[in-house]
Structures are given as C-alpha cells and as structure tokens.
Amino acid sequence: MSAITFSGLSSGIDSAQIIQQLVYLERAPIRNLQQSKSDYQSQKSIVQSINSKLQALQTKVQSMDTLPEFLSYTATSTDTDKFTATASGSANPGTYQIEIFQLAAAERTYSNAFASKDTADAAGNGTLTITIGSEVDTVEVLATDTLEDIVNKINASDAEVSASLLSTSAGYRIQVTGNDSGAANAITFEEEASSTLNLGLDIVDNQVQAAQDASLEIDDFAVTSADNAVDDAIQGVTLNLLEETTTALEVTVAPDTAAIKTKVSEFVDAYNEVMTLVQKEFDFTGEAKGQDRLAGDGTLRSLKQQLGTLISTEISGLTGSYSALSQIGLKTNTDGTLAIDDDDLESAIASDTVGVGQVFAGTSDHSVDGISDSMDTIVDSFVDFADGILTAKINGLNTRIDNISDSILRYEDRATKKEESLRLQFTNLEVMISQLTSQSNFLSSQSFLWG
Asked: The whole model's pTM is what?
C-alpha cells in the first residue's frame, strides 16, 4: 500500500501534480518500448498471416503433385441399371464394350428347420467346423444351447461369416452367409459325426447360393472378379456391376474438364492469397508505412521473387504440348497475382489433358518436376517448422518482444521507486514546512506577550 500524502497542506505547493509530471518523464522510455513492442507484434502478425497462407498453398500443391492427383476423368455407362462406373486420375480416355454374364456372390446356406428358437438342445450338441479356403474355425455347440445361442457363437467366432435366424412356415432356420463374395470364399461346413449335432448346414440342398466370381467380357476379353466392384481391369476405372445382361453395353472414359479447372482455380486462389498479403507490404498508398509494417522487408522480397520466377519459368523435359503456365491460360498480373483465361485453359485441357497435368505434376515417371513439386520446395524453405525462413523470423520477433517486455518491467519498477521517493521527499518537505510554520507562529505569539 502506498503512503498517504497530503499535497500542499503546509506549503501550498501542488506536489501531486509535480510528482505526476516527473513520473511521466521518468516513464518516457517505457512509452517508447511499448510502441516498439506494438510494432514488432504487428510485424509478427503479418508474418504469421503470410506463413499461414503459404502453408495452405503448400497443402494445395502437395495434393496435385502427381498426374493421378491432378488429372480427373469421368466414366459414363450406357445403362446405369446394369452397371455404373467411376474413374480416377490414373485413367485414360477411351470407350469399352461391356457384357455381364454373372454377378459375384457370397455363399448363403441354411440349417434344417426347428420348431423353436429358444429351446435348449433343439439342434443337438457337438463341434461345427467352418472352413473358408485355408482358414478353419470351430464352434462348440452345447446341449444347453438354443438356436439363438448358436447364432451368437457363430458370429463370435473368427470365421468370416455372418449368422442370423429366419422364421418360416416350417420353423426356424439359421442362415449363414459368407462375408466376402467370390469363388475363393466358398464355405465348407462339417458337423461332428460322433455327436448329436444335426444343424444340417453340411447338407448340399441347404445351400441356396454358392460363392461365385463375377464373369464379364470387356471388348470380348474374358474378365473375372471376386466382387462386383471391378477395379483391376480397365486402368483407373471401377465398374460397379448391378445386373446380368446379354446386351453389349459401353463405358466411355473422358477428361473431366470442370474438375480439372476447379483444381487449377483452387491453386490460383491459394497462390493469390499469398501474393496479395506480400504485395500489401510493398504497395505505396501515398503515405510512408510505419515501423509496424514490413515495407521493403528482404525476406518477403525474396519470397515474392522466388515464387514469381517459378510461375514464369518454362519447364524443360516435359513430354506434352505445354511447358509453362502461360501456355495453358494462366497470366501474371502487375501485382504478382495470377489470373485465369477460362477459354485458353479449357482449350488446353481439350487439346492435351495430360500435357496440362504435366505442367503442374511433372512426368509420370517423376524424371521431371512440375510447378507443384518446385513450389512445394520453395514454400517449405520458408514455412518448415524446424528451420523455415519465416519460422526463424517469427522466433526472432518473439525474442525481441520478450526482451522488450523484460525491459518494460525493469523501467516500470524504476518508475515506481522514483514515484515513491518523490512522494517521500515532498511529504518530508510538507512536514518540515509545517514544523517551521508552527515555530514561527509560536515565536510570534511570544513576541506579542512580551511587547
């Protein structure tokens, strides 16, 4: 608690105002330091914003640095009731004739019919062996088990099957279905011969659906598949078989121009967000920028120069029709941002889709890097968490801010002590003046009495 003072009671001097002015002068270095701290905090905020936008740009270029990632294709079926199709970026344009003779299926087998689902020992007891390929699993059926218990035990086993109960007019049956389709996933049931087990899963007539492969022809070439999603026949295309057909159908694979343009547009947007923030520090608005900005900053100038040079670079070694962004409809504005000429970009995609992709993603064998890989390298040199240039700049600004904060605390302590000292001095002055005044009044009164 500060000492209680009585300003000017004896002297008539406004000591509180004098102390306030003297302390204000004492705090002048603090105000300068606070301004410097505010300036550095503003600079740090700018660098962090640019760093964040660069990280977003890096994420974008990393998502399109291979041809399958950059390219997009559509796969169109002539009869979507029979099959549908999807294509990835690794597909190739073309049309294929499709005939579907048989769909893939998982095995489905039923037990004998039983009158009750919750009567113990209804199906006897013993060991049920389930074999799928080389995988053999056993289920121990006890005399106390009901049909529901047996279903639960089958589902709890490691066998790749699913069991459930079906209620029919003849009674309850256990249905066992393979989890996977395809002939290789056929199921063999074996009920312990020396037991009383009589589920009937091993009876051939109780099998209502055999495990089978899908059978089809693509351009008259036979193809089989363990499931109905055929993704290893046509490169980059998945055929989703829905229904058998004796009529030849077609699937057409073509470049997805809209999707590719969207990827290019997202890249341009991410790039422009970086360049806009950087250019904001260099733009002259008619007034000189203060110390809270990064006008003329060497780090930002280097970033802008490196990105700008890369954007305008012609890439040698590409095998397509294009080797530069300017050839596919991307132009550089005077402020360093990019603009897209939609017509030129669409025309380039239609003319040489893979060639457009190579400008961004490089060659398919990775012998030549595209813009994405090169930009990733540049950006990483600035934003890397361990030794990125902007990371170091942010750390440096943090150190300056911390040092200034420490200096402010020291000056605050000095100003506080100065204020306490001044208050004590003026208080002592008031006491002394009060004492002198009392002595003077006493002497005056004595002089009056002796007069």
From this structure: 0.79
